[in-house]
Amino acid sequence: xxxxxxxxxxxxxxxxxxxxxxxxxxxxxxxxxxxxxxxxxxxxxxxxxxxxxxxxxxxxxxxxxxxxxxxxxxxxxxxxxxxxxxxxxxxxxxxxxxxxxxxxxxxxxxxxxxxxxxxxxxxxxxxxxxxxxxxxxxxxxxxxxxxxxxxxxxxxxxxxxxxxxxxxxxxxxxxxxxxxxxxxxxxxxxxxxxxxxxxxxxxxxxxxxxxxxxxxxxxxxxxxxxxxxxxxxxxxxxxxxxxxxxxxxxxxxxxxxxxxxxxxxxxxxxxxxxxxxxxxxxxxxxxxxxxxxxxxxxxxxxxxxxxxxxxxxxxxxxxxxxxxxxxxxxxxxxxxxxxxxxxxxx
Length: 346
What we know:
By secondary structure, the chain is α/β, with parallel strands linked by helices. It contains 7 helices and 15 strands. InterPro entries: NagB/RpiA_transferase-like, Ribose5P_isomerase_type_A.
């Protein structure tokens, strides 16, 4: 209960009052802690029957120290998988970034916090030549916060100069096949990730060993699809007709909060498919054919299959950029980094 002391000073006595008003329980301890201390004091009167004892309760609120989720954790505290991601990120940045790059894309994958850490370390050791300024293009709200937390300068995709190309884009993936096709969209940022990749001279992917598979939809069973809210039911119906009967709208863990929404206020549908084929296979759905078929459905904004040409191939063809990575860096369990590269840079 709360205890409140009121002082009444018309004479030399003090009376103590205690309220019994119930209070709300304190919030969960991960937000803040309540520290309650009580002190008792006695006010003596020349007249014994007027002597009183008062109790004062002091409540203080303290906030526990919590790590910033947008900053990289201490390397010594990392588990083997996170350590593998970090080593892959530092290797990728070492081989594909330099301080003279004006515009660099930063993805939204779980590995990107380490990629940004590596970039910040590189810039600290090798400041950009004057009058150069490095700008970093985020693929969503979270990646923007990661950029800012590292002390780097973000620039929105739609604020880029019209003739500007990004020198490189660093991003993660949910799964990568032997032809470097990727499934992306587990973090619901696939539309902006594809925008940035296709505006970059090269897309470099950073992942851990679990993402390295011979075919897509091996361990990551679903293809994320970004859809207009008004069209989600009709998109679900058509997905069932083309071979994904268990396609489902992605919802928050707390059901009453409804479907997850992207930065564009669109919904995400996760559509399970059997293992996708590559150009070397015969069968129903290869990666390119499935991506094009889903994209043709009315109401679909983007598909989480990053396929087709990479940045080197598109530039050679006189185009802007490619959605497939030119190289993928897989952090391994033994601390090594496996690099798979496109034929153009082998």
